[in-house]
Design brief:
The structure is a single chain. The protein is globular and about 65 Å long. It starts with 5 loop residues before the first helix and ends in a 7-residue tail after the last strand. It folds into two domains: 203 residues, Aldehyde Dehydrogenase, Chain A, domain 1, CATH 3.40.605; 180 residues, Aldehyde Dehydrogenase, Chain A, domain 2 (3-Layer(aba) Sandwich). Strand 14 and strand 15 form a beta hairpin. The chain is α/β, with parallel strands linked by helices.
């Protein structure tokens, strides 16, 4: 495994040790063995276990999960990687780069991953464990097929890699996607883009009010994991709350829900640093400019902010800020969903029921509350493994 720092990356000597264009079969047994071993090392590491996102990644890479994924690909015997995939990881989600890497590796590709420039202890722990694993005899052959790099901003050498790679996976905002779209690439370069997205939570009020106190407490914990755990920086974290029910019932459900969440926030000792609090305030100010009527802003002791209006179409809402909308029973959800809506997390109503009340299902995911951050190989409406692999058309002779 190669891990050049920005200056080493620019010097370029590391490229002579990297196996460009190397491809393996999709879901190759050796790859599954490697990722399962990585999973075991992460889950046994006491330091890694203190980070929930690393633990989630470790569970994702278990053999049982990877085998389940492999079984969904009926034609895998004819599929191979394209070659080298260059991954541009987002800077706001610490372990996203590792999931992107696994997507490329399972697809049968060698991978170069541009790491976030921001320091995250999870990244350091991940790379240390990976180095230990690659030092063992069974997995040394993978060393030249993966590189985790850091680069200077607007690096010309990164642009040169874009021209050389057989595939490009870009996570980030719309501007990042646009910047990489216009770069020269190989004629057959496979491109996967993950631009800005927005997500919402949908709560069926009558069912929520009928839940036991224990279940409501669990939902508050699940909602915390979907949102506050990553400060709503994940594209799948809801920033909008769609309450389906009668107005009087919605007021009661909101009172219960937010009071229970407040207890979770206090138990977790959730606090914002001054910079985050400023960003949170600026987010609200930018979004309220979109309203043509007054808004209500409720704030709690733990810095949970709720915007109440039917007219704001929010852009970025982070650090525990939510737009609340009342949806009449029997109404379609489409008028309240944005053009870049990605994930609906639901409670008090099943994902299947939510799908039925969409006129045009333009969203990509509908999942139970608590599963917003669960990454799968079907993301943003794409089957990532088949996209990042090529299928050989073997025609049976008549």
């Amino acid at each position: 495994m190669l891990t050049p720092n920005p200056d080493q990356f620019e010097a370029g000597a590391w490229q002579s040790q990297f196996s460009f264009a190397t491809a393996r079969p999709i879901c190759d047994p050796k790859t599954l063995d490697f990722l399962h071993a990585l999973s075991q090392m992460i889950l046994k590491d006491s330091t890694a276990r203190s980070f929930s996102d690393l633990v989630t990644f470790g569970y994702f890479c278990r053999r049982s999960n990877l085998t389940r994924i492999a079984k969904t690909i009926d034609d895998q015997m004819y599929r191979f990687g394209w070659g080298t995939i260059l991954h541009i990881a987002p800077s706001n989600i610490p372990i996203n780069f590792a999931f992107s890497f696994v997507m490329g590796m399972l697809s049968g590709n060698s991978n170069i991953v541009r790491m976030p420039s921001k320091y995250y202890p999870q990244s350091v722990i991940f790379l240390d464990i990976m180095k230990q694993l690659l030092a063992t005899v069974p997995y040394q052959s993978f060393c030249s097929e993966m590189a985790f790099v850091q680069t200077h901003r607007d690096s010309p050498f990164l642009k040169a890699l874009v021209r050389r790679a057989q595939g490009l996976v870009v996570w980030g905002g719309d501007k990042t996607v646009q910047d990489f779209r216009i770069l020269p690439k190989q004629p057959r370069c496979i491109e996967v883009w993950f631009p800005n997205r927005a997500s919402s939570a949908v709560i069926g009020v009558s069912e929520y009010l009928a839940m036991s106190d224990q279940v409501q407490n669990a939902l508050a914990e699940h909602f915390y994991n979907d949102t506050y755990l990553v400060d709503q920086n994940a594209c799948s974290s809801p920033g909008q709350m769609l309450w389906i029910g009668r107005e009087a019932d919605i007021w009661l459900a909101q009172s219960i829900f937010w009071s229970k969440l407040e207890l979770v926030l206090q138990a977790k000792e959730y606090r914002l640093d001054p910079v985050a609090l400023i960003d949170k305030t600026l987010d609200v100010m930018r979004n309220t400019q979109l309203a043509d009527t007054s808004i209500n802003l409720d704030r709690t002791q733990s810095n949970s902010w709720r915007i109440s209006t039917q007219n704001v179409q929010p852009g970025t809402l982070r650090f525990g800020t939510f737009l609340e909308v009342m949806v009449p029973v029997g109404a379609h959800l489409d008028p309240w969903l944005r053009s870049n809506e990605q994930t609906l997390t639901v409670a008090g109503i099943s994902p299947q029921e939510v799908y039925k009340i969409l006129k045009t299902p333009s969203i990509d995911r509908i999942v139970p509350m608590g599963q917003a951050l669960n990454i799968s190989m079907l993301w943003d409406g794409r089957d990532i493994l088949t996209t990042l692999s090529r299928k050989v058309d073997v025609v049976t002779q008549l």
